[in-house]
Every structure is written in C-alpha cells, then in structure tokens.
TrEMBL record:
Record-given protein name: gibberellin 2beta-dioxygenase
All residue ranges annotated as the Fe2OG dioxygenase domain in the record: 169-286
An example molecular function term from Gene Ontology annotations: gibberellin 2-beta-dioxygenase activity
Region (Disordered): 186-206
UniProt KW keywords: Dioxygenase, Iron, Metal-binding, Oxidoreductase
Source species, domain of life: Eukaryota
Alphabetized Pfam families for the sequence: 2OG-FeII_Oxy, DIOX_N
Length: 355
C-alpha cells in the first residue's frame, strides 16, 4: 500500500495524513487483499490506482453530467424535484438538510435510467448509454474490491459481498453532485451553513455523514472539497485525482463484518473559487429483501454480534427517517439501551432511552 504525500492544511482541527492507496495491478493477490482490509479497518476509505476503468467511459459520463448541470435552472427542474430520485438543488433528503450543491440521483436499473433520461437530456439515448456503461464499469470495480475484502477477511464464501450488488434486484444508485464555485454564489442566499471551526472558507457542500450502502466507488474532477473524519476526531482533506477512484466502506458492510470494517464519515466543502466540483458517486447496495446480519465468521464468543439482523429495506427506511449527520447504525445496535420495545427495528423509543 502506498501512502500518498500530505496535502496543505488550513484549520487547526484539520490535519494532513496520507490516504491509503491501493494498486489493483499488484499481482500478489493475498497481499492486495490484506492491504484493502487494513485500509477498510483503519479508515474505511482508500484510493485505487490501476483500476482498469477505461478513460472514455469516465469522460463520456463526465461530459453528460457537465452538460446537464450547465442547463438553465428551469430545464434542470424538469428532472426534479428529487424525492429521492431525480434533480435536487440545495435540499438533501427529506428531513431539512441543505448544502451548497445540486445533484442528480438515479437508480441503476436499465429501465429507470431509460425513463429518467427523457427528462435529463436532449439526447436521452446518449445519456442512458453513458450512464449504463459507467455503472457497469464501477459495479465491476466494486465487485472486484468486495471479493478481495472477502479474501482478506478469510471468509469461506468469496462472493458473499459482491453477490448482493450483482443481484438484478440490487438497490444500487448513482449520484452526480455539482458544487458551484464561490464566484457563482447567489447573493440572495448569503446565509450559508458553515462548519463550526470559525473558518469562513468552509462552505458546506454535502454535510457530514456515512453512506448507508455496502460500498461507495467515486471519482471527481480535479477540484477538491472532500474530507474524511478520522476516529481520533480530525477532518482530513482528500486531494482530488480525476484519473483515479476512491472507495468508501458503507454502513451495511460495517454491519456484515460485525464492525470490523468501518463506514467512514465524510463531507464535501464547496470552497472552490472559480471551477465547480463535480463528483460521480456509485453506491453499491443489496436488494431490499436481503438480510444484513453479521457473517458467522465475524462473530465469536469474544466478538458477539453488535447489530440486530435487518433487511436492507428496513435500513433504508430508517435512513430516510434520520438527518444526514445521524449515526444510523446505532439504531440497530444490540444492547445499547434498555427499553420496552421488544426489539422492534428501528427501536421506536430511540429518543426516550432508559439508561
Ligand atoms: C438526509 C438524507 C439524505 C440521504 C437519506 C437521508 O435521510 C440520510 C442518508 C442520506 C444519503 C447519504 C449517502 C447518499 O448520498 C444517499 C443517496 C443515501 O443513500 O443516503 C443520501 C440520501 C439522499 O440524498 O437521498
Ligand atoms: O461529492 C463528494 O465528494 C461526496 C459526495 C457524497 O458524500 C455523497 O454523495 O454521498
Ligand atoms: Fe457520501
């Protein structure tokens, strides 16, 4: 594993560290799987180089995304409002979260891509072709990484994670985020949510959260903004790299591995002065009826199950009743409180704990 060189820092609370970098062309598969597991345990985040995704596939998707976000607002609104799918602007989810961004959220099955494309593009066939090719490529990358994770964890069924997102019923999604530069800041909306470290250059694009799914694979253009949160309480800026992909462990993978791999908290700032940031994010998810119980190999008398079994559908439903920054996995923790709810999922008296 290569640890990249530190990037410059601005705030006292933000420290520069190296982001683990995994070279997928490494011929030593057992070493590779070990490195991936190590990065997922320590950070829940890493960068992949030599990922094998053709440049043209990425460029085609990027062109389609940029063309969409360059459209007049009225036209973009034809693809919205996002509830949760479609075009959204400044509102994230349905619990009042906001940020300085606009986005497109799309389900990854071919039929919904084809239907959505009509409202998104003047050339729907071209748009859906770019999206389908991009999704196929990132899905393969996600599956390859998940198989390596299973190998590194010495799990007997090596496809145990990738099978979820290969399933035709998989609930995976694609998100294109567009963070306008400060120069295009609308003077009418001067009140922006800033991070609380008194740094006025921290304009929140996408607030702090962890991704609920199994694995997130994403890239951005060469404009920075992403930060990850380390367990010791530091926010670390991630230098952008338009040619590579980044990987994040999601909550579902944390649950499946009984907390051994950790879902990473992250946020995106929208501080770029002139150039917009655009990120293309694939969230690999299981089918709605798939059970996310900790794998038997991850449970022992010394490491008892941390989470109640839940289906992805139940988790997703719980996610949509929480705010962006909430720790959703806590709702499914075993023995984290005593109450009279008879183990309902999620616990209906969560806000009313009997300690
Ligand atoms: C506030 C919310 C937006 C979100 C659903 C949620 O209620 C909590 C999780 C959010 C998140 C974060 C990662 C992904 O961007 C996302 C699509 C997801 O699956 O969970 C978003 C949801 C969203 O924007 O709809
Ligand atoms: O734009 C980014 O870099 C991060 C976006 C993100 O965290 C998300 O879409 O869930
Ligand atoms: Fe995210």
């Amino acid at each position: 594993m290569v640890v990249s060189s530190p990037s410059p820092i601005r705030s006292k609370k933000i420290m520069a560290i190296g982001i683990p970098t995994i070279d997928l062309s490494n011929y030593n598969r057992s070493k590779l799987s070990e490195q991936i597991v190590e990065a997922c345990e320590e950070y829940g985040f890493f960068k992949v180089v030599n990922h094998g995704i053709p440049k043209e596939v990425v460029e085609k998707m990027e062109t389609q995304g940029s063309e969409f976000f360059a459209k007049p607002t009225m036209e973009k609104q034809r693809a919205g409002p996002a509830c949760p799918f479609g075009y959204g602007c400044k509102n994230i989810g349905c619990k009042g979260d906001t940020g300085e961004l606009e986005y497109l959220l799309i389900q990854t099955n071919r039929q919904s891509i084809s239907e959505r494309s009509n409202d998104i593009s003047n050339d729907p066939t071209k748009f859906s072709c770019a999206v389908n090719d991009y999704i196929e490529a990132v899905k393969e990358l996600a599956c390859e990484i998940l198989d390596l994770v299973a190998e590194g964890l010495w799990v007997s069924d090596k496809s145990v994670f990738s099978r979820f997102i290969r399933d035709v019923q998989s609930d995976s999604i694609l998100r294109l985020n567009h963070y306008p530069p400060v120069k295009d800041w609308d003077p009418a909306t001067k009140q922006h949510p800033f991070t609380n470290n008194n740094n006025n250059d921290n304009r929140i694009g996408f607030g702090e959260h962890s991704d609920p799914q199994i694995l997130t694979i994403f890239r951005s253009n060469n404009v920075g903004g992403l930060q990850i949160f380390l367990r010791d309480g530091l926010w670390v800026p991630v230098a952008p790299d338009a040619n590579q992909f980044f990987v994040m462990v999601g909550d579902a993978l944390q649950a499946l591995t009984n907390g051994r791999l950790v879902s990473v908290r992250h946020r995106a700032l929208a501080n770029s002065v002139v150039k917009p940031r655009m990120s293309m994010v694939y969230f690999g998810a299981p089918p709605l009826n798939a059970w996310m119980s900790p794998l038997p190999e991850m449970v022992s008398p010394e490491k008892p199950s941390l989470y109640k079994p839940f289906t992805w559908g139940e988790y997703k439903k719980a996610a949509y009743t929480t705010r962006l920054g909430d720790s959703r996995l806590d709702l499914f923790k075993i023995n984290n409180h005593r109450c009279k709810c008879n183990d309902q999922i999620p616990c209906p008296c969560f806000d009313n704990l009997v300690q």
